[in-house]
Design a protein that fits this description.
The protein contains 34 helices and 2 strands. With about 675 residues, it is mainly alpha-helical. It has a two-stranded antiparallel ribbon.
């Protein structure tokens, strides 16, 4: 019964769900999750025609992966803005990928239990926690599923040449090509898949020497050369898709500033990191402890470490080629691992990390294949009993599952994950930055500033760090220090409109409104559709008494962000101050239709109704505003005025006393209380 493929698939899925089940309660991570998903308006807007156009047209955050964006949008529609739904989807994709990997390997090799063990290692290895537990790595698990489906379909195509009709083969080929295209639209790292298909042609499909009787023998050189061109030719469509994906990715990453220039990381440094990264990935696959997010690049690695890594990679490659003449699975497994890491190994440096655990999501399968088939060959050679092989596999999977549970626990919160990373690494400014961002969001501004400053001590040339430090100081009302931070950010990157807009806000809050307006106008010159800056400019103009100009800025902001309730509320206030009561009331009512619990809009609508002598309706709005914000002196005073006009003297006096308790200097409340002849509030 347990040897049935369907049962094995079910067990793989259940084991994966059991180990990773706690992840459904985890939150977003401060690194990438906010910009990718949580605070991304295109994603949180859900699936729509506009969203689809954005997904296919945007190289957002330095990436072009429209299918991944669409999956995040579907999450927002199905589960709302929280993290539980996206975590569960990541987990399900990983579990299904493990099952499909098993089916694909079994179809390609005919080996049931070896295929099952490779799939189980893929499902439970601790190095894959980062891909599953990090919502931003949806691109890993989604593209991974497409990769497995491509292999499965390709196996059906390659093995059916003399068995199925041409139409059946064409359908398998088309399915493989279609799944590959979907994979590239999920994550461009899959560009190496055509080369992996050639490795599968070598072993286990034996398409280079189809007449060979020994499944693990390498084909003779003449047969290999004769078969090579037809196999390459049938993969031309795959290579064309890879080339197109590479071109699009380079453009997107250059536009997003993700590719590091050669002046910053020389060719020698990149080659050093390439060999060291290969060696470190192998080490982490064999001993998956001390896993961190991220691993900072040290620039130059110690010479001894570089030479050791070079010797390891070249030595293992030579050994695999030599042994591969009798054990072809070694060639496929090892060069699967080497080849699929090429796009992210550091020759084209993207981002700041020297390596990343999630990059091994697909490459690790090659190592698993080589190890499992080697162990099976050794067991057959030494005639070991099957129960011993089964026991060894169970112990290995148990160790993997246990360490995966340990690693998964670090992902409960950003703070725990990033403190763990800082404990394991040195000069990790990215972790410092992300931890500072997480602490700032929790209102722990002083702690956040300390981490930002530590990150800047390591990387003083980061515009993003100076801007984030400025944001934290701005939240803490340290306006002079915030202004200096934003100015430093703009010295490094003058077209950073976010930093310039925040500089304007800091100047405005410090009373330098004319200078703030200059910054806002410069932002709008660079980014005319920046709704936030139009809003801030409107607020600044109100402060200068230039209400008519402020109204124009609020209206422009609403053209770009028609659903921004704060803009609409402030527009209503500006219109009210112009004496346009009816128009102001329309704005406040629009806010309340969208958000009935908007206390400011309730109070403002009460003010409109009061000027129209509609005291009963005004009292209702003020009373609701007081219910929503009991400590609002403005709402309490408005309610008292309305109650007094309605002849409800005692109630009005009670509300006025509450106003004066909150604000003893409130002149209006004192005057109205005196007019009503009420007793003054007791001294406190």
């Amino acid at each position: 019964m347990f040897a049935r493929p369907a049962v094995i698939c079910g067990l793989l899925v259940l084991a994966t769900l059991a180990v990773y089940w706690p992840v459904r309660t985890y939150d977003f991570i401060a690194l990438d999750d906010p910009i990718y998903v949580r605070d991304n308006p295109a994603v949180q807007g859900g699936l729509s025609l506009h969203g689809v156009c954005w997904a296919f047209g945007a190289g957002y955050a330095g990436n072009w992966h429209p299918l991944t964006w669409l999956s995040h949008m579907l999450d927002a529609d199905l589960f709302g803005p929280g993290a539980a739904g996206p975590h569960l989807v990541n987990l399900l994709l990983h579990a299904v990928s493990a099952a499909v990997l098993f089916l694909a390997l079994r179809a390609l090799t005919g080996a049931l239990w070896r295929s099952a063990l490779v799939a189980a290692l893929f499902a439970l290895h601790p190095l894959h926690v980062e891909s599953v537990a990090w919502i931003s790595e949806r691109k890993d698990v989604l593209s991974g599923l497409c990769w497995m489906l491509t292999l499965w379909a390709y196996g059906g195509y390659a093995q059916s040449q003399s068995v199925r009709a041409i139409g059946d083969r064409a359908r398998c080929y088309g399915l493989a090509l279609g799944c590959f295209a979907l994979g590239l639209m999920s994550k461009p790292m899959l560009v190496t898949l055509p080369c992996v298909l050639l490795l599968l042609d070598y072993w286990p499909l034996r398409r280079f020497a189809p007449g060979s009787s020994k499944a693990d023998d390498a084909p003779a050189a003449p047969a290999f050369r004769r078969a090579l061109w037809p196999l390459l030719k049938e993969k031309i469509p795959f290579f064309v898709l890879s080339a197109a994906s590479c071109a699009i990715t380079v453009v997107a990453q250059r536009q997003g500033g993700a590719i590091q220039p050669m002046a910053r990381l020389s060719l020698a440094m990149r080659i050093e990191n390439t060999f060291v990264a290969y060696a470190r990935y192998l080490g982490k696959l064999g001993w998956p402890t001390d896993l961190a997010l991220p691993y900072p690049s040290p620039g130059h690695w110690p010479l001894a470490e570089v030479m050791g890594a070079v010797a390891l990679v070249i030595g293992v490659s030579a050994l695999v080629v030599w042994l591969g003449r009798r054990s072809s699975f070694l060639v496929t497994g090892w060069f699967w691992f080497l080849g699929t890491l090429v796009p992210v190994i550091g020759l084209v440096q993207v981002g700041e990390q020297s390596l990343a655990d999630h990059y091994t999501y697909v490459p690790a399968i090659g190592v698993f294949i080589a190890l499992v088939w080697s162990a099976a060959a050794a067991g057959a050679h030494w005639r070991l009993p099957r129960w011993l092989a089964g026991l060894g596999a169970a112990v290995l999977l148990g160790l993997c599952a246990g360490q995966t549970c340990v690693q998964l626990a670090y992902w409960q919160t950003s703070e725990r994950l990033l403190r763990h990373a800082l404990a394991l690494t040195q000069d990790n400014w990215v972790a410092d930055f992300a931890l500072g961002f997480s602490l700032s969001e929790k209102g722990r501004g002083e702690e956040a500033i300390a981490y930002y400053e530590h990150a800047l001590a390591i990387n003083p040339g980061s515009t993003r760090l100076w801007k984030s430090l400025g944001d934290a100081r701005l939240k803490g009302r340290q306006y002079a220090a915030a202004i200096q931070c934003f100015q430093r950010a703009l010295q490094l990157k003058g077209d950073n409109t976010d930093a310039r807009s925040n500089l304007g806000l800091a100047l405005e809050e410090s009373g330098q409104r004319d200078q703030a307006i200059e910054q806002y106008l410069e932002v709008l010159r660079q980014a005319p559709g920046d709704a936030l800056t139009h809003f801030r400019l409107g607020n600044c103009l109100v402060g200068l008494g230039r209400t008519e100009e402020a109204v124009a800025q609020y209206q422009l902001a609403l053209q770009y962000e028609p659903n921004d309730l704060e803009v609409r509320n402030n527009l209503g206030v500006a219109l009210f101050n112009q004496g346009k009561r009816d128009q102001a009331g329309d704005q406040f009512r629009a806010v309340l239709r969208a958000q009935p619990g908007h206390a400011n809009a309730r109070c403002n609508l009460g003010n409109v109704l009061a000027t129209q002598q509609k005291w009963a309706e005004a009292a209702e709005q003020y009373a609701e505003a007081v219910r929503l914000t009991p400590d609002s002196a403005e709402a309490l005073y408005g309610l008292a005025r309305a109650l007094a006009r309605l002849g409800r003297r005692d109630e009005a006096i009670a509300e006025l006393n509450e106003v004066l308790r909150l604000n003893p200097a409130h002149a209006g409340a004192k005057q109205l209380l005196k007019a009503l002849g009420g007793p003054a509030p007791e001294a406190r």
